[in-house]
Amino acid sequence: MSTTDALLVVFAMALVTYGTRAGGIFAVGFVPMSARVEAFLRYLAGSVLVALVVPATVRGGTEAYVAVGVAILGTLVLRKALPAIALGILAAALWRAYMGAT
Amino acid sequence: MSSASSPDPQARAADGGTPAGAAQASATATFTCAGCWRGAKAILAVLPPVFVFGVAFGIAARGHGLEGWLAALMSAIVYAGASQFAVLDLWKTPIPWLPLLVATFAINARHILLGASLRGLCRGLPAWKVYGAMTLLSDLNWAALIAAERRGERDLGYLLGGGLMMWFTWVGSTIIGAVAGGLTLDDVKNYALDLVLVTFFATTLVGLRRGRIDDLPWLVAGLAAMAAVWFLPPNWHVLVGGLAGGLAGLVRDEMKRA
């Protein structure tokens, strides 16, 4: 691939990607704000997160379940995200060390 | 739907119809350095995995015949890891333009939902600030901001601050990977760094939960995302799950009202 072509590809990718970043806020600008839209956007935020977490956890196998489970419990108990993440990772590392590789 | 209002974010402050029980939604958002700083601090925990994935991308890019400076440029202006990895396999002559751009769009289409959900946090801000901040929108700084919003954060700078931290980390680590080398994705797995990202999202989710009202939408979102993983081409699951969950909540509310 020539340098010019490669540059064209990278710029085209950047354009498409920025389109997705700006597109959401641009699109909702056309929708009049209502209680319904407000509620939808709120469900959307949580649902997107669920859609990020669930497949990644299933794909990650047992140690991902351990990490996510401990992190969620940790957040509920400690009310702080950072130590909860650390505990989750630690639990997964211990699991991997003592229960064998997945 | 037919009465389209201006897409200009400034016009949104004038939009009527603020729902009852969502007092914060009517407040105007801000954009300050202090907000940037808060966002930058909130994102610190996920910088190590971002760094390692950046190094891995630099190495992988060189392995696929990209020059180092081109890999760095891609990280700088595309700034979307999953799609950058994906196009490496399409990096050949003649350029497969359509698959390449479709893949880029498909993998990054979830940003549309992320951006849409930030509407309340853009209220009353000038367009250049809103669209400027969106250049650095990604799952991680978005998740951090959404969680902070629940605690009363009203500053879009939060998104920019977190995004800037990640941008410098991502570009810097790409350069390091392209210059150095030796690390593979397997090493990343060995240090459990890939799990940092998913636990980060999971803890965000805990803060976001309002109670049983979220049960049905989230259940639908999870099932739809898994169905997308099984039945659709890769990388549609966030978009499908997010939309399905959002619609499920909306439909449930409508049926309750009826």
UniProtKB/TrEMBL annotation, chain A:
InterPro entries: Brnchd-chn_aa_trnsp_AzlD. Keywords: Membrane, Transmembrane, Transmembrane helix. The chain crosses the membrane at residues 6-28, 40-58, 64-95. This is AzlD domain-containing protein.
UniProtKB/TrEMBL annotation, chain B:
It is found in: Cell membrane. It comes from the Bacteria. Pfam families: AzlC. InterPro entries: Brnchd-chn_aa_trnsp_permease. It is a multi-pass membrane protein. The keyword Ribosomal protein does not apply. The chain crosses the membrane at residues 42-63, 69-91, 98-118, 130-148, 160-185, 191-208, 215-232. The keyword rRNA-binding does not apply. Keywords: Cell membrane, Membrane, Transmembrane, Transmembrane helix, Transport. PANTHER family: INNER MEMBRANE PROTEIN YGAZ. Belongs to the AzlC family. This is AzlC family ABC transporter permease.
